[in-house]
Structure formats: structure tokens, C-alpha cells
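[Automated response] Your request has been received and processed.

Submitted sequence:
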Amino acid sequence: ARTLRQGPLASSAVQELLRAHFVSSWSLTAELQGYAASEADRATKEMAAACLNEYKFPVQIVCLLPNATVVDSICANDLVAVDDVDEVELEGFTDPIEMAYHRFLSSCVTKARTQHFFEAS
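Generated structure:
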């Protein structure tokens, strides 16, 4: 089975989008639980709690604003379960998972701007 790292995260289009609009990181559930329960700064606690609230096994991709507002999230299993698509539908991407992840990220940028009135500085 392919991983996100071998697929969409290896895509130059996805990497470009991540660099331009996101702080990309990953955390284990146990780490998030520790942050949420700790005496860490409030922002860290709120972000950890927001991620835990969204979590679905095995991997959840969560887009947060700096104030811990969840813009959107998707379970990695749902992302990689994209059905085969016609080559015309790939819109220049090499595989459907890459395209789906890029669409998810682009949608997060749009939602952050239009629904949450967030513009990165």
C-alpha cells in the first residue's frame, strides 16, 4: 500500500501549496493527548484538543487556523480510497490521490479565506 509520503506528499504541486499556505506537521495521538492535558501554553492545548476532536483512525489530516479553529479535516483512508478516474479528470496530476489531496488543501485555503476571513500575512 502506498503512503501519503510516497504519493501526494511527493508531488511538486502539493509541496508548493503546502509551502505557500501551511505549516505542515504531524503528531502521534499520544503526543496530542499529552499536550491537551499539560500545562502548556493555551494555544498548544487548544490545537491539540481540536486535532483530537477531529481524529479518525488511523491518520487524520486537519487544517487549523492559528486560533485552533478547524477549517476542514479528512481521514487518510478516505483520501486514498479515491476511485480510479479518467485521465481527463486528473487535471494534469499523475494520480487520483495526489489530485484529491491537492483539492483538499486548495479547499482549505478557500474556506479559510471565505468562511473564516483568514489571510496569512
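Summary generated for your ticket: Residues 8-22+57-114 form one domain. The chain has a mean pLDDT of 89.
If you did not submit this request, please reply to this message.
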